[in-house]
Amino acid sequence: MEKDQAVLARLAEVKARLARAARDGGRDPEGVTLVCVTKTFGPDEIRPVLQAGERFFGENRVQEAMRKWPELRLAYPDIELHLIGPLQSNKAREAVEFFDVIETVDREKIAGALAQEIARSGRCPRLYVQVNTGSEPQKAGVVPEEADGFIAYCRTLGLEVSGLMCIPPHGEQASPHFALLNKIAARNGIATLSMGMSSDFEIAIELGATHVRIGSAIFGAR
Ligand SMILES: *Cc1c(COP(=O)(O)O)cnc(C)c1O
């Protein structure tokens, strides 16, 4: 119970900061969606946030999400679940069946597997392309120079790219990465920008984020 109260207090604080950052930038707070990142946390820790009215959630592993979300979804059928972690093509079927938004489309093999599953199942989650704005070798995402070409490729497969997502390099100033993502989105006619996490969501909102993905600032350290 006390732990629930702490989570709810942090949630309220995050929402207040989100609204303030939006207003400071002359934007409507309603234009910024809070995606609560629940990886590593269980249904008992997630439930208070659902009870408080949050409906957008992010998970980074397909299997983990499929273990814990079915029972929560029965109670809250109107939630929207985002896959924010790397997707293997052998998990494309499950990802298409289970998620409402897949934020990590980043290579031709995945795009092809998703197109095939979408055609087969008739289910069509919204798709975002992940951009590796820092061109980090170990990080998922298409590098900036290849983003336009990859988005065009997805479109030739009949996939609608509705958003872009990025995770700036650790320990670097995030704002140039957010600005770059915004620029790539603008020139490709993409309106949704998933950027900003616990440590940098206000600056992301200032630079046009429509979705912020926040875990530890709400649920505590992992
Ligand atoms: C874990 C994670 C987040 C949330 O990070 P916090 O720092 O806990 O807010 C956001 N996006 C992705 C892709 C993540 O894996």
Structure characteristics:
about 220 residues, alpha/beta, eight-stranded parallel sheet, 9 helices, about 45% helix, binds pyridoxal-5'-phosphate
Describe this structure in words.
This protein is an alpha/beta fold and about 220 residues long. Helices cover about 45% and strands about 15% of the residues. It contains 9 helices and 8 strands. The chain has helices spanning about 1-25, 45-50, 60-75, 90-100, 110-120, 145-155, 175-185, 200-205, 215-220, and strands at about 35, 55-60, 80-85, 100-105, 125-130, 160-165, 190-195, 210-215. An 8-stranded parallel β-sheet has the order 7-6-5-4-3-2-1-8. It starts with a helix and ends with a helix. Pyridoxal-5'-phosphate (PLP) binds near residues 37 and 213. Pyridoxal-5'-phosphate binds near residues 37, 84 and 217.
Helix/strand layout:
Layout: H1 2-24, E1 33-37, H2 43-51, E2 56-59, H3 62-75, E3 80-83, H4 92-98, E4 101-105, H5 108-121, E5 126-130, H6 144-156, E6 161-165, H7 175-187, E7 192-194, H8 201-206, E8 211-214, H9 216-219
Parallel strand pairs: 1-2, 1-8, 2-3, 3-4, 4-5, 5-6, 6-7
The structure holds pyridoxal-5'-phosphate (PLP).
Helix/strand/pairing class, anyone? alpha/beta
What would you report as the Rg, rounded to the nearest angstrom? 17 Å
Strand order of the largest sheet: 7-6-5-4-3-2-1-8
What is the 3D shape? Answer: globular
The main β sheet shows up as: 8 strands, parallel
H/E series:
HEHEHEHEHEHEHEHEH
- Would you count the extended β strands for me? 8
Overall pLDDT metric: 97
Helical content class? 40-55%
